[in-house]
Amino acid sequence: MDAFNLLKTDHEKVAELFDQLESSNGKAKLQVFAQIKTELELHTHIEETIFYPALEDPKQTHELVLEAYEEHDVVKKLLKELSKAKTANEEWEAQAKVLRENVEHHVEEEENELFPKTRAALSQEEIDTLGEQMENEKNRKQRGSRSSSAKKSGGATKSASKTKSASTAAKRARASKKGASKSGSKSSASKRSRSSKKSAAKKR
Fold first, then answer.
1. What residue spans define the domains of the chain?
2. At the N or C end, where does the chain have fewer CB atoms within 10 A?
3. Is 183 exposed, middle or buried (0-12, 13-18, 19+ CB in 10 A)?
4. What would be the CATH architecture of the domain defined by 3-138?
5. pLDDT tens digit string along 53-101?
6. pTM of the entire predicted model
7. At what angle do helices 124-203 and 26-46 cross, to 10 degrees?
8. Are 29 and 95 in contact (CB under 8 A)?
């Protein structure tokens, strides 16, 4: 797996999501933003843990990598601020536009400056190895995210099941009490009836 192809695929996916963000409204806009946030966090993770460290030493890429780290920090801060919002108001949309501009600037520098210099600094074998490592790490993180979501969903289902069982048990208990109350009332009425009959017989 060529490292550049993998990263460019990520760039294209995020660009498409930003287009969707602009054409969406209300809650749909926040849902698209959540996808953008997930994609960017995953992308920056594999770059910062695998791709950039391999480019810190070569002179051709050293300064560009340091600048890329700084650009990532700006994007992370914007993501954090935007994720706090419950509605996509005008201020939120303005911040989202700034986020897109920062991401597009970062992508342009990577693809037009960092990637060519990386190709000059590393062998194709090293580039392919970085690509494989990033792909494996990306898959690992995605599996972990799905597993976490499944656990949360399972916990919610169990909680709902327990609540339902408790509710059913409570209903049965109330029904049992009502049954016992009715039975007691019938028994008292029967006793009163027998007592009245005895009293009438004595008078005769």
1. 3-138
2. C
3. exposed
4. Up-down Bundle (1.20)
5. 999 999 999 999 999 999 999 999 999 999 999 999 999 999 999 999 9
6. 0.72
7. 130
8. no
